[in-house]
Amino acid sequence: MKEFIDYILQFGNLNKQQTDLITGKAKMIELHKDEYFSEAGKIPRQVGFILEGVVRFCYYNNKGEEITHHFIEENNFVSDQQKFEAQVVASEYIQAVTDCKMLVFSKKDWDDIGNTIVGWDAITGLILKNCLLKTIERRSPLVSEDATTRYLSFIEHFPGLVNRIPLSHIASYLGITQQSFSRIRRNIR
């Protein structure tokens, strides 16, 4: 719980009573590898904070191929925020890539926090902005660089993930086949 409070306090000031309210609304869950936190075709029901583990955002393209477009690791929020706030059907999946422990907030509890704590919207706005900037920073090189450079960039941005998640997910994230990915890894060693 300390990691969670420390994370939030980076984005604004809260007193003990406010942090107690927030943590009182949180529920601890465990998500096993390959289980979904949120599914395409369903309305996202919760916001999570990852204490342990890694999740990925993925979707299926028009050829039926699974595409991974984002990873989120420990000490970060995870949600399909836009769809969660609007309570509309999600178009992508959020799946546990490893076993995960998370704090989760239902829509009602999340709204209660926002309605009770003055300045909560500003804090969550800064958190969301930070998450978006990280995503852009990590995704931008994938557009213009060759596959080897993209992989080296992946290692730089996600140093602890290469040995924790399936290589097929990394290949999908990098936009290359598993065969190409294997060749690139062989050449780098």
From TrEMBL:
Domain Cyclic nucleotide-binding: start-end pairs:
30-113
Q: Which residues form a coiled coil?
A: none
Q: Which InterPro entries match?
A: cNMP-bd_dom, cNMP-bd_dom_sf, RmlC-like_jellyroll
Instruction: Please give the Pfam families that the UniProt record associates with this protein.
Output: cNMP_binding
Query: Can you name this protein?
Result: Crp/Fnr family transcriptional regulator
Instruction: State the species of origin.
Output: Dyadobacter psychrotolerans
